[in-house]
Specification:
Blueprint: E1 18-21, E2 29-34, E3 46-52, E4 57-61, E5 67-74, E6 77-81, E7 84-88, E8 93-96, E9 102-106, E10 112-119, H1 123-130, E11 132-133, H2 150-156
Antiparallel strand pairs: 1-2, 1-11, 2-3, 3-10, 4-9, 5-8, 5-10, 6-7, 6-9
């Protein structure tokens, strides 16, 4: 095989990669594991790990041009997808296509940890813009607010305003089975 034809390959260990403390309401941290920042030839996605503190949540949002995969590997919580709650516990995988409102809630006593993948990428830019640099092993900071210009940051990265209208309103809503719903 011609060695010049190989794409990038690397390993990112625990607590390696860019990491940012996240503001209220998530109260945790995000680690960027794979993105164009690792190698400029990486194109089309970014991926990492996010920890949401007890009682914290990732607020409701949607993306107009992104697909997102979420995989829970530690903790207990729920994912709200288009207004319907689903258990989010180790082994749960969530796929969210464009124009699907979603939020993630930590209902447990410990951090809720998940792997995220966003296609195309860009979530790393958001985490950096709203967060504070984090070093592995350091104590978490006191909860801190989101920047005053968070709306501008969201619009400049991967988020779409919640009052925006998707094309063909309602055509892209995910189907939900009764087995996936949390009881009230």
């Amino acid at each position: 095989m011609d060695e010049t034809a190989r794409g990038p390959a690397f390993v990112v260990q625990p607590d390696e990669g860019e990491s940012y403390w996240q503001p209220v309401p998530a109260n945790g941290y995000a680690e960027v594991k794979v993105s164009p920042r690792n190698d400029p030839s990486i194109d089309g996605f970014s991926s990492g790990v996010q920890a949401i503190g007890p009682g914290g949540h990732v607020r409701e949002h949607w993306h107009d041009a992104h697909e997102e995969l979420l995989f829970c590997f530690e903790g207990e919580g729920r994912v709200r997808l288009n207004g319907v709650d689903h258990p989010f516990r180790p082994g749960t995988m969530v796929y969210v296509g464009p124009w699907n409102k979603h939020s993630i809630h930590n209902d447990g006593a410990d951090d809720l940890k998940m792997t995220w993948l966003l296609r195309p990428g860009g979530l790393e830019d958001f985490f950096q813009a709203i967060g504070r640099p984090r070093k592995a092993g350091e104590a978490p900071p006191e909860p801190f607010p989101r920047p005053d210009n968070v709306g501008e940051i969201e619009a400049a990265t991967v988020f779409t305003r919640l009052d925006a209208s998707p094309p063909g309103e309602g055509e892209h809503l995910a189907e939900v089975g009764p087995q996936d719903q949390l009881s009230s």
